[in-house]
Specification:
6-stranded mixed β-sheet; 4-stranded mixed β-sheet; Butyryl-CoA Dehydrogenase, subunit A, domain 3; alpha+beta
Length: 491
C-alpha cells in the first residue's frame, strides 16, 4: 500500500497508542476529540488529494527509491519540477483546508536529512544514508504522515546548549548502549505532530564540539515509550467543546494544532539514528530544512490567502457594497498580496539547485524573501478582511443566540445585510474571517507564519550574506551608470 485513502489514514490513527494531553487531561481517543478532530481532517485532506490524482500530480509522485507511486509529502525532490509540484501541493492544501497541511515539515525534513546523511557518509564512512533509506522506504510503503521536529525550547537564549543551567533545554543524548541511544529534552511548536505516525527529529541550530551530545538526528514512531504530546492552547479553542457548535467555529471542518513534544529518557535504536555527534553537519541540516519550509510558506500562504479573498468578496456583497470602488481597492490589495506570496515561493522553487546527493533545494535567497513576506503579509490580509467585515467580526452574538426562541428573531432581523442573503450566511462568513484573523486559526496563519522556519531577522541576514560577494559589483555598476567610472578611468 503506497497511498492511503482518507479513511484508511483516519483508521490507522485509531490503532496507534500515544501519550496525549489536552487541557490537562490524558486523551485516549485523540482522533475524535472535538478540539483535535478539525486538525485530523486537515491532515486527512492530504490523503484525499493524493488519491484523487489519477497520474503523478501535485499530490502523488513516483518514489526514487522503489519506483512505486507515493504520496508527494513523503517523496524525495530530485528536480526543479519536483520542487514546483510540491509548492503547488501546498497551495492546493491551503485552498482546500484554509489551514494548510502539517505534513510539510515532514517533507522538508526528509529531503534535508537525506542530503546531509549522504555527505556525512562521504566524509566519515558511516552508514547513515543506508539507515535513512530503509526507514524512508517503510514510510513510503505505508504512507505514514511524518512530522519534522526541530525547535528546541532553548532555555536561556544567551547560552549555547552545553552551557545551559539545565542541560535538557536542548534535546540531547544522555546515554549510549550497544542497542541505541537514550535521549531527553523537548521540542516546541510541533504542528500536527500528534496526528502523525512518525517523527523525524533534528537539531535546532549549528553545534560546536562542546555541544556534541546535542548534534543528534533520528526517527521515532509516535507510540514510542517516553514520548509525550501536550496540546497547545489556541484562541477560542473551547468553542469546539460547545454542543452542536458550527457557526461560532468559523472553520468547522478543518483546523491546526501544535504540541509541546517531550522526550522523557526515550530509547532510539541505532538503525533509526542518522546523525550522532558530527557537529559540523548540524548547521547544513538546519539550513536545508529551513529553506524548504521557508519557500513553501509562500505557496501555502497564497492558498489560504485565496480563502480570505473569497470571504472578503462575499462579505462585501452581504453588506451591500459589492460594487463599491473603495472596497474593491482593498480586495485588489488582498489579491496582490496573495499573488506575491505565490510568486516568490514559486520563483524559489524554479531556481532550485541540486546538492551532492541529488536532492534539490529551493533557492536560499528567494526562499528567504518568500518567508520574509510570509511574516507580515498575512497580518495585512487579516486587517483588510476585518476591515471589510466591519465591527461585528469582534462583537457579533453567538449561534446560541440565533437559535434561542425568544431572541433569535432579533438576531435574524438586525444582523441581516442585503435582503437576498440569509442572516446565517452572513454570520458564518464573519466567523470565518474572525477564525482566520484572531480565532483558532490565527495561531497557524499568523503567529506560525511569523516564527515558523525563522522570524523576519534571519531572512534579512540571509539576503545580506548572499549579497556580500555581489555588492562591490553592484556599486561598480552604479558608478558606471552615473559616469563616475569614466572620470576615474580617464587618462
Amino acid at each position: 500500500m503506497a497511498i492511503k485513502t482518507k479513511e484508511e489514514y483516519i483508521e490507522s490513527l485509531h490503532k496507534i497508542g500515544r501519550n496525549a494531553f489536552i487541557l490537562g487531561e490524558r486523551v485516549e481517543d485523540i482522533v475524535n476529540h472535538p478540539i483535535n478532530r478539525p486538525a485530523v481532517n486537515a491532515m486527512a485532506e492530504s490523503y484525499l488529494l493524493a488519491s484523487e490524482n489519477k497520474a503523478n500530480g501535485v499530490g502523488r509522485a513516483v518514489s526514487y527509491l522503489t519506483g512505486e507511486p507515493v504520496n508527494r509529502y513523503n517523496a524525495l525532490s530530485r528536480s526543479t519540477d519536483d520542487l514546483v509540484l510540491r509548492g503547488e501541493m501546498e497551495r492546493a492544501m491551503g485552498v482546500r483546508t484554509a489551514a494548510g497541511c502539517p505534513r510539510s515539515t515532514g517533507h522538508d525534513a526528509i529531503n534535508a536529512v537525506y542530503s546531509v546523511a549522504y555527505e556525512v557518509d562521504e566524509k566519515y564512512g558511516t552508514e547513515y544514508l543506508k539507515r535513512f533509506q530503509a526507514w524512508l522506504e517503510e514510510v513510503e510503503k505505508n504512507d505514514f504522515s511524518v512530522s519534522g521536529a526541530m525547535t528546541d525550547v532553548k532555555g536561556d537564549r544567551s547560552r549555547r546548549p552545553s552551557a545551559q543551567d539545565d542541560p535538557d533545554m536542548y534535546l540531547r543524548v544522555v546515554k549510549e548502549t550497544p542497542e541505541g541511544i537514550v535521549v531527553r529534552g523537548a521540542k516546541a511548536h510541533q504542528t500536527g505532530a500528534v496526528n502523525c505516525h512518525e517523527h523525524l527529529i533534528m537539531p535546532t541550530r549549528g553545534m560546536t564540539e562542546n555541544d556534541k551530545a546535542y548534534a543528534i538526528c533520528f526517527a521515532i514512531s509516535i507510540d514510542t515509550p517516553g514520548l509525550y504530546h501536550i496540546y497547545g492552547r489556541q484562541p477560542s479553542d473551547t468553542r469546539k467543546l460547545e454542543p452542536n457548535a458550527s457557526i461560532d467555529l468559523g472553520l468547522p471542518r478543518f483546523g491546526g494544532c501544535e504540541t509541546l513534544m517531550v522526550f522523557d529518557d526515550l530509547f532510539v535504536p541505532w538503525e533509526r539514528v542518522f546523525l550522532n555527534g558530527e557537529v559540523e553537519f548540524t548547521w547544513p541540516l538546519v539550513n536545508r530544512f529551513a529553506i524548504g519550509h521557508r519557500s513553501s510558506y509562500g505557496m501555502a500562504g497564497a492558498g489560504v490567502g485565496d480563502v480570505m479573498i473569497g470571504a472578503a468578496v462575499a462579505m462585501a456583497e452581504a453588506n451591500g457594497v459589492g460594487k463599491n470602488k473603495i472596497i474593491w481597492d482593498k480586495i485588489a490589495d488582498l489579491i496582490i498580496m496573495s499573488k506575491m506570496l505565490y510568486g516568490l515561493g514559486l520563483a524559489a522553487m524554479v531556481k532550485g539547485r541540486p546538492t551532492p546527493s541529488g536532492i534539490y533545494l529551493a533557492d536560499y535567497v528567494l526562499g528567504g524573501v518568500a518567508k520574509y513576506n510570509a511574516t507580515h503579509l498575512p497580518f495585512s490580509m487579516s486587517r483588510l478582511g476585518q476591515d471589510i467585515c466591519g465591527g461585528l467580526v469582534a462583537t457579533m452574538p453567538g449561534e446560541a443566540d440565533l437559535r434561542n426562541e425568544e431572541i433569535g428573531k432579533f438576531i435574524e432581523k438586525y444582523l441581516k445585510g442585503v435582503s437576498h442573503i440569509p442572516t446565517e450566511h452572513r454570520m458564518r462568513m464573519i466567523r470565518l474571517v474572525e477564525c482566520m484573523s484572531m480565532g483558532s486559526m490565527s495561531a497557524d496563519l499568523m503567529t506560525m507564519g511569523l516564527h515558523g522556519a525563522g522570524s523576519p531577522y534571519p531572512q534579512k541576514m540571509m539576503v545580506l550574506a548572499d549579497l556580500q560577494e555581489t555588492i562591490p559589483q553592484l556599486v561598480e555598476l552604479a558608478m558606471y551608470h552615473a559616469g563616475i567610472l569614466d572620470e576615474i578611468n580617464a587618462p
